[in-house]
């Protein structure tokens, strides 16, 4: 698809409506049900990340009392990315607690403190929100790719059911950019989520 065609498709009013209609709304809940997010429309991309930071954060959050699992058998984290203006926290937002690998990091992983469920990763300077697949329903569109696989554990041999990319591939970055165009290059706050 040419860049122009992609832009028309991403910005076209009809396209956006079809996308929302086809995908409707989904909810993501913490394990105990106190925290609920609602997402609308198609995700930007469904990807699993193998970067060292996601592995480290996954291990740390999994060590919280009674925390549900985050990392898959290969040490990856399964994520579904949405535009920030298509996600809102409809219940229990005050229970979300930010976990950062370093205090100054612009990336925070929000955990529902009621039951230590990791809900989403928020790159606070970005226009997208990265939801943990484990908190979402079965009807989420399937995994499209794995990224940052160069950082995977040395013992891991990945399946080849989807493309495995060593880095944040251009295809992934393009999807992020294409989603930003119809947002007017704004970086909105997520409704109902603590700043
Ligand atoms: Zn909970």
Provide structural commentary.
There is one protein chain. With 195 residues, this protein is α+β, with helices and mostly antiparallel strands. The protein has four helices and ten strands, in the order ααβββαβββββββα. Helices cover 22% and strands 27% of the residues. The strands form two sheets. The protein has a seven-stranded mixed β-sheet with strand order 6-7-8-9-4-3-10. It has a three-stranded antiparallel β-sheet with strand order 1-2-5, with no helix packed on it. β1 (25-29) and β2 form a beta hairpin. Residues 1-19 have low confidence and may be disordered. Zinc ion is lined by residues 30-32, 34-35, 112, 114-115, 117.
Would you state the CATH class of the domain at 42-85 and 93-183? Alpha Beta
In whole angstroms, the N-to-C terminal distance is: 37 Å
Number of strands: 10
Bound molecules: zinc ion
Trace the largest sheet across and list its strands: 6-7-8-9-4-3-10
Using the CA coordinates, give the radius of gyration: 16 Å
Query: Structural class of the helices, strands and pairings?
Result: alpha+beta
Overall outline: globular
Give the rounded overall mean pLDDT. 90
């Amino acid at each position: 698809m040419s860049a122009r065609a992609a832009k028309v498709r991403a910005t076209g009013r009809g396209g956006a409506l079809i996308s929302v209609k086809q995908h409707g709304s989904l909810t993501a809940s913490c394990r105990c049900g106190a925290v609920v997010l609602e997402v609308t429309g198609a995700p930007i991309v469904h990807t699993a990340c193998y970067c060292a930071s996601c592995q480290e954060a996954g291990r740390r959050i999994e060590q919280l009392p009674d925390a549900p699992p985050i990392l898959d058998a290969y040490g990856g984290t399964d994520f579904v990315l949405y535009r920030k203006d298509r996600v809102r926290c409809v219940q229990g937002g005050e229970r979300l607690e930010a976990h950062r690998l370093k205090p100054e990091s612009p990336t925070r992983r929000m955990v529902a403190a009621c039951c230590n469920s990791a809900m989403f990763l928020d790159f606070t300077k970005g226009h997208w929100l990265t939801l943990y697949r484990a908190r979402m329903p079965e009807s989420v569109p399937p995994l499209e790719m794995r990224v940052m696989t160069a950082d995977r554990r040395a013992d891991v041999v990945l399946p080849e059911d989807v493309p495995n990319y060593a880095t944040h591939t251009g295809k992934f970055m393009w999807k992020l950019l294409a989603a930003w165009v119809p947002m007017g290059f704004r970086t909105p706050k997520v409704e109902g989520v603590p700043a």
